[in-house]
Amino acid sequence: MMEHYYKLAKEAEKKMLPWFDRDGTVQARQFVEMILSSSGFNEGFQRLSLPTVAEQSCVFQQKPYLRNASRKLLIISHRKFMNEMNQLASAGDSIQLPKDKPTTSKLTQCFPKKMSQSKPITLNEMKPVSDTIYEDRVIELTIIEEHIIKLKWIQVIAEDNNGDVTRLFIHNVEVSKENLIKLGIGQKITIYNPIMQMGDQETDIGIRNDEPKCIVYQDQVHQLCRFCGGGNAAKKCSQCKKALYCSQKCQQHDWKILKHKLICFKV
User: Fold this and answer.
1) Do 83 and 193 reside in the same domain of the chain?
2) In whole angstroms, what is the distance from residue 107 CA to residue 110 CA?
């Protein structure tokens, strides 16, 4: 008896495999269930849980880089620091920030003579062993986390067009309301002749910009989702009233994977 149903299942598998494409999973499920139902073999068993088309097109399949471990660690590290600063501020304690790196760099970042001759570069292509300036290159970034104001620079987390993330240290910029708005979440920026800064600690590694003219502010992603980076996110965190999400799933992922709780300060 079991051998007979095993053969039926193998035959169903052979007929089902060609249907495993974007539009065929539902049809495949129905076919297998029909075979098992006609044999009476599926009584007492739960329905097959093959992925639906909607499940196949979930955010992780559309943007697989969201599962990147280094992305997760970098964002959580940034949020932990923000959480520590908030706790100190709430307790009324003076905030002692880490000692700044020198304001002057051995490298001199200058605005390119001809912007049109600057070739695009991505974070994956920038793998130096020491501080390196990428002359005649340009990188496009989107700010995805809130800024941290250090003693002599502004720090944010930014994402390139491939979904890779980096710390971005912006020096020699006035800490004004106008500039902080320009460096808000969703802001797209272009940096010419970017510097990849290396340091003694992991938290020192990232892109450094010393020359304000080398940053060109582009359009802003309207209502950026704090998990997937999509635009026009309509759902808002009910507690902090700041974080936006394009779906309940993204909100759940941000809470569980990227630890939104660290920066979810009740208004």
Assistant:
1) yes
2) 10
